[in-house]
Amino acid sequence: MNYMPGTASLIQDIDKKHLVLLRDGRTLIGYLRSIDQFANLVLHQTVERIHVGKKYGDIPRGIFVVRGENVVLLGEIDLEKESDTPLQQVSIEEILEEQRVEQQAKQESEKLKVQALKERGLCVPRADTLDEY
Amino acid sequence: MAEGGEPVIIEDYLLLEDAPLLEEMAEEDEELDLYNEMTFGIEQDCTEEDTSKPPMPPEMSPELAKAVAEETEAGEDLGPEAAEELEEPQEEGAMEMEQLGSELEEELGTEDQEEDQEPCEEPNDLGDPAVMRAVQSKPTLESQDSAVLDSRIGACWADFGKEDVLAMDPTVWGSWPGSIPPPHVLEDKAIVQVLERPPPSTSVALDFLGSPVQRGYRGSPRLKRPDIRLVPPKSFPQRFLRQQSPLVPRSPCSPRPFAPPRRPPLLFTSNQTTGYASPTRFQPMPPNISRPPRPLAMHFGPMSPSLDPALFFSPSASGQLNLSVPSHLTQLHPQHQRILTQRQQQSISSKKLWSPKVDPYAGLMTSKEKDWVIKVEMIQLQSENTDDDYYYQTYYHRLEHKQAEEELLGGRNKQEPPKLVTPFIQKVETYNSVVRIAGSLGQVAVSTCYSPRRAIDAVHHALVEEATGSHRLRALHKIEKLFLQLLEVEEMQRKMSLAAEEQEQKSQDAERIYQALKIRACSSEEEAEDEFLQLLCVQKGKKLTARLLPHLSPEQAEKILLTITHHLPFLMKKDVLDESLPLLYSPLNKVVGRMTFSKLIEVLQEMSRPLPESPELPVTMALKNQFGISLLYSLLSHGERLLSSDMPLEPRSGDFEMWTDTVFLVARELSQVPKASLVEPLFLPSNLLSLFCRYLDKQTVVHLEAKMECSPLPSEAAMLC
């Protein structure tokens, strides 16, 4: 029931399990316990989920207080459907290792790209530098 | 200690850490005994109490037992101990409270001390054990103060998962001996007072989660019609939901089972006829929930003088329990009781299949807090300025349009779209950051949600432009500042009914922005130094200019156009990444459309001016840029329009030559530029070919036509060539 037609509010989402994507790329899963007008979130029994390929690993984090502006999106997790996922859960160590490998590969390919462009006289500014202002 | 085999009133529910069946049974047996005794007046042997308990004043009656320290003791000790505890002096009672430790919150202890403890008046040596007495005696801990109950609830809360407690219930609820207060009790003024207290007016509803305390308090049994009805499990949530205020969202129900306290049966009159459970009367929640349910809060209201009719509490409590078994109203035989409750348990356990496991951490955010957040959100929606919440406004416009259409088509009754009723909150238009109270020293901090705290009058004086060294940063900052001003201008524009002075105001504001832009047309200065150009290098700067153009006077707009055209190569180069120059096309097009011929020539001159650094002409470069080519075409098209119209052109000397020169130049460049690098313009004016026809031979025109991918000329026009 939306007693505020035309609006969206997180009030209805309280005490439900949510997946929250942060601006730094982290994925948090936890029970949304409290909000405020800035959509700052209090997440309970939070788990940070790292995805690499078809695998994922959960790191239990406890209670999170997330500043609203850092949230990209969040959505409720259907507890029944939560388990049927094609992804495979692995241990924390394994997923961290996989992540490290993936980052390394990405960095190397990026480096090659920049090098190739430089050779051709092009200088593509990296997207993240725009954020520096 | 009351000797003489006083019937021990087994105290209210107990939170046993473990509730072995044995204990239950033992309790049940005790209850049975009690029941029998009460009913049939059988002398009961008083079981030996714990001698460790301090001696009690004889005048204390055992009836009002306190629910204290049960959780640590076995069930069988309950009765006697309860009696003992009851008879303890007040301080000891308090002390005992402290002993409970984690179970009870601190306030409880203090509260207890604060409570009125009626002095015991009646001697406890009446022979008849069945006689209920001691209304005046120290009231039960629980009866006095549902904080105890609350603590029980709290304990239950913490002890999530102890279904045993539920199992305890039947025994607890067992036949309460003598649910009818004996006549002599009613003579006691205090009791009568309490009993006659009007029933609670406040609601019970949402607080189920957390403040049974409050509910407990305000409820009081109805003397005449002890109509305490217990909701059968199924109907409970439904009713509750129905009566919920729209404001308060549904919090997850947490039917925490806990044993409701056993209340002294004194509170019920003899004319009570209902011995049957009926659902609790739920009172609808007030629309504005002022009281937040506080799960573990000790909420102490005015205490009843003597007996707190904590009995009233039980309905809600038992409602929470989903017990349809009546409490002390009934005089069920314990075995009957047991059967009933067993049945209930089964139903409850079957319910567990569908209801998710109760979340002990739920309800962290109280409904008061939720309401507050909702209120803040609603305030944000209240705004005159349509810019503030675009989605909300758009949603409503669309909804209204749709309904209007439906109305037209269907001819149905006008359906009002559900309007969002926002609470009327006086929005403080001006925020006085610092309030100076006359005659006081210093300032008072005024905080609103717009500005949390401003204790001192510190105003930021440093000029940001000087502070920051970077050109780009300065440019960005300037853009932001001007954009805000532009928004204000547009806002004024939007208010269609502009009075004369408002229009004046608007143009003044626009002028101010224009001045701030510091446009120096056709400056030969280094482009990096030109502030306006730096602004134009940023996409937002282009947007700013594009939106500003309609509000400027024609001269100002033309000056901007001139500047842009003059520095076109520079701008085009800078725009390679962004590709946001086309933003400017539309407003500039309009500007061009209003220009005089002379002005047009002036602009075109800029495009044909040879560049110092590059062999290419601006025209040529423009042909390779979408914005450039579009602008060029637009200029040419306008010129052609002016020439072919009958309007007097008032050209300056040399204008026409310039014009023809430009046309030839463009034609030449167009034919020379390879098709591949020719960019498609944003808009291709239709009169370009006729323009070329005027000056060029047919062959060239055809060639250009192919190049430009124009639609072929109509035959008459072609004839001119």
Automatic annotation (TrEMBL), chain A:
Keywords: Cytoplasm, mRNA processing, mRNA splicing, Phosphoprotein, Ribonucleoprotein, RNA-binding. GO terms for cellular component: Lsm1-7-Pat1 complex; nucleus; P-body; ribonucleoprotein complex. Transmembrane segments: none annotated. GO terms for molecular function: mRNA binding. CDD domains: LSm1 (cd01728). Its main location: cytoplasm. One of its GO terms (biological process) is stem cell population maintenance. The keyword S-adenosyl-L-methionine does not apply. Plays a role in the degradation of histone mRNAs, the only eukaryotic mRNAs that are not polyadenylated. Probably also part of an LSm subunits-containing complex involved in the general process of mRNA degradation. Belongs to the snRNP Sm proteins family. This is U6 snRNA-associated Sm-like protein LSm1. The lineage of its organism: Eukaryota, Metazoa, Chordata, Craniata, Vertebrata.
